[in-house]
Write a sequence for this structure.
């Protein structure tokens, strides 16, 4: 009698999510952990990241789907930290999704361009534009065919809001880099996604003193990001809230 066919187990998918100690990054990481993904997560502040990583590790244990959590504290704008992220990706054996979520707002409240401190402007671009490009360059050889690159952007990248010249223009630059990357790497799915307004610390910093209780939580934007990461939509720009139920 012929021997029964043994179906090979598919490898556990791996995602690198930057800025994952709070807000949208943490909400997405929790969702992926529940689905059995292995994760590399980072954040600038070590203590909140350690708490988040502990919670994520407990989630993967409950899911019992084989996922692992590696946390690497540091500033994504620093080359040494990016090398540490690469080492973590190598430990997990490759990459199926790269999510550029880490970013900084700049001054709070947001100043007009005529008075924008140029040293801070340079720092905003270092974190929001140069760091995602540098990290992408580093991990591209580890990305599996069909992997997703997701750059979290903002409506401030396409709308000219007074006071948003620093953050908004940095996101516009990130969007264009991402669009060019999609043209240069058709073997990947390359997305820029606007998560919409969210009740996060960055939103509170952007609008100091305002009541943001009517803003939706970041968890509401996660299904749209999952539709991109796990779906088959073509490279392009998307709104997270328009993607619910799409691409699966």
């Amino acid at each position: 009698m012929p021997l029964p066919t043994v179906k090979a187990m598919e490898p556990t998918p791996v995602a690198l999510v930057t800025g994952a100690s709070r807000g949208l990054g943490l909400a997405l990481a929790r969702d992926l952990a529940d689905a059995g993904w292995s994760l590399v997560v980072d954040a600038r502040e070590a203590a909140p990241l350690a708490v988040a990583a502990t919670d994520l590790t407990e989630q993967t244990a409950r899911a019992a789907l084989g996922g692992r959590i590696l946390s690497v504290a540091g500033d994504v704008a620093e080359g040494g930290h990016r090398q540490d992220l690469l080492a973590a990706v190598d430990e997990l054996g490759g990459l199926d999704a790269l999510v550029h979520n880490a970013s900084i707002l700049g001054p709070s409240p947001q100043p007009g361009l005529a008075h924008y401190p140029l040293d801070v402007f340079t720092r905003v671009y270092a974190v929001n534009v140069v760091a995602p490009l540098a990290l992408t360059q580093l991990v591209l050889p580890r990305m599996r065919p069909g992997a997703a690159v997701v750059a979290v952007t903002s409506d401030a990248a396409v709308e000219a809001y007074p006071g948003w010249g620093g953050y908004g223009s940095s996101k516009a630059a990130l969007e264009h880099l991402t669009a060019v990357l999609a043209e240069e790497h058709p073997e990947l799915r390359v997305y820029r996604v606007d998560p919409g307004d969210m009740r996060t610390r960055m939103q509170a910093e952007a609008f100091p003193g305002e009541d943001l209780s009517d803003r939706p939580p970041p968890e509401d934007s996660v299904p749209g990001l999952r539709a991109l990461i796990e779906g088959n939509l073509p490279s392009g720009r998307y709104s997270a809230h328009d993607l619910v139920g799409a691409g699966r």
About this structure: The beta strands are 14-17, 38-43, 69-73, 95-100, 143-152, 189-194, 236-239. The longest strand covers residues 143-152. The mean pLDDT is 90. Residues 14-239 form a domain with the Rossmann fold fold (CATH 3.40.50.720).
